[in-house]
Amino acid sequence: MTFVLGLTGSIGMGKSTTAYMFVDEGVPVWDADAVVRDLYGKGGAAAGSIAKHYPAVINAGAVSRPKLRDLIAADPNVLDHIQTLVHPLVAAHRAAFLKAAIDQIVVLDIPLLFETGADDLCDGIAVVSVPADIQRTRVLARGEMSETDFDLILARQMPDAEKRARAQWVIPTLTLDDARQSVKDILTEIEKGLAHA
Question: pLDDT, tens digit, for every residue of 12-23?
């Protein structure tokens, strides 16, 4: 029997690091961000369709994330249109991953899991979480975005408290050890459930 675990969390919560912990435990992980990066890359399926509509965000055949971010900041409607171009490609990739998953636990690592309705594909949800002040500090310490950019992203994401309320498991990521132990505990719980199914 296959168990699909949805892994989500707002920006700066430690989701990517936690996803690697599942990989370390031998669990196949489908990474939505990595798929989008490939689709946006040179020769990627999304780069071609985005180039037709927004040629200014293309650089050397690939989508320039900073240029795209600037365009979206100037006109938020652009993001909705980009999503209509990209989401079908992402969904097809995800469907192929799930089709190949037979009798095992797999993880769907999706930042906007609830926002996109992808939680409907999951048998259980785990959300990574830290207090809001630590989240902000982590994101701004990366030096990749301004406070305005961060607030814009947060505004498009479901609040952390709501995600935690809708999840079966919450993975605290204040320390790597806490997160790693939570990952092990979740997998043990799922495996026990599958054994009794």
Answer: 999 999 999 999
Cβ of 115: how many Cβ atoms within 10 Å? 14
Written as one string, the DSSP assignment of 121-189 is G-SEEEEEE--HHHHHHHHHHTTSS-HHHHHHHHHHSPPHHHHHHH-SEEEE-SSHHHHHHHHHHHHHH
Tokens of 93: 């990739």
- In CATH terms, the superfamily for domain 1-28+102-197 is P-loop containing nucleotide triphosphate hydrolases (3.40.50.300)
| Cα-based torsion angle of the residue sequence 61, 17, 82, 73 in order, rounded to the nearest 10 degrees | -100
CA separation, residue 156 to residues 84, 152, 161, 183, 194 (Å): 16, 7, 15, 27, 35
Supply the angle between the helices 147-156 and 65-74 in degrees, to the nearest 10: 70
Q: What is the pLDDT of residues 140-184, one digit of tens each?
A: 988 888 888 888 888 888 899 999 999 999 999 999 999 999 999
The ranges assigned to domains in the chain are: 1-28+102-197, 33-100
Give the Cα separation of 31 and 151 in Å (integer): 24
